[in-house]
Design goal:
- Strand 3 and strand 4 form a beta hairpin.
- The longest helix is centred in the N-terminal third of the chain and has 10 residues.
- The protein has one domain: Roll (ph1033 like fold), CATH 3.10.590.10.
- A six-stranded mixed beta sheet has the order 2-5-4-3-1-6.
- The protein contains four helices and six strands.
- By secondary structure, the protein is α+β, with helices and mostly antiparallel strands.
- The protein binds a DNA duplex through loops.
Length: 151
DNA sequence: GCCAACGTTGGC
DNA sequence: GCCAACGTTGGC
């Protein structure tokens, strides 16, 4: 059973264009327990992911990618020079997980946060609920398809 | 750059 | 275990 997700990224840090260039990437730096649980337990190979640009001029969904490697320990947590270093994490029982994704496509037209907010079919997505900061958001197939339809 | 909302930390 | 202080997220 395939799952559907929305992953947030700040385009200044890593954008859909970077993923198009790289082909695949590891999704590092998730340091929130709820998002971690999704990455560790629920995000499966073959799942489809909407690539969302946050904290930028026009926030919204800019592309699609696909999970190619399921949850494994995020190596940046053990690297003292990395900005995501977590000295409390034990290598024998890592706290933080990552997945790998591959580029699928860029949307011809991005679907902006404003458009998502204005679509009643999308009102249950955690992206648009008050104060939600979760960076790994589960979607239903219907929500995923609806957003693609809007592009 | 501002600031509301939220998660985490740490003193007690 | 409570909760104030603090840091971060992310829209605007």
């Amino acid at each position: 059973m395939k799952n559907y997700w929305l992953f947030k990224s700040e385009p200044d840090v890593y954008s859909i264009d970077d993923l198009e260039r790289d082909g695949t990437t590891f999704w590092d730096g998730v340091r929130n327990y709820e998002a971690r649980n999704y990455l560790r337990d629920k995000v499966k190979k073959g799942d489809k992911v909407l690539f969302y640009h946050s904290n930028c001029e026009v926030p919204g969904v800019y592309g699609v990618c696909e999970v190619v490697k399921e949850g494994y320990p995020d190596f940046t947590q053990f690297d003292p020079k990395n900005k995501y270093y977590d000295p409390k994490s034990n290598p024998n029982n890592p706290t933080w997980f990552m997945v790998d994704v591959k580029f699928v496509k860029k949307l011809k037209k991005p679907v902006t946060l404003e458009e998502i907010k204005n679509n009643p079919k999308l009102k249950n997505i955690r992206l648009v609920q008050k104060g939600n900061r979760l960076s790994i958001i589960p979607l239903t197939k219907e929500e995923f398809d609806e957003i693609l339809k809007m592009s």
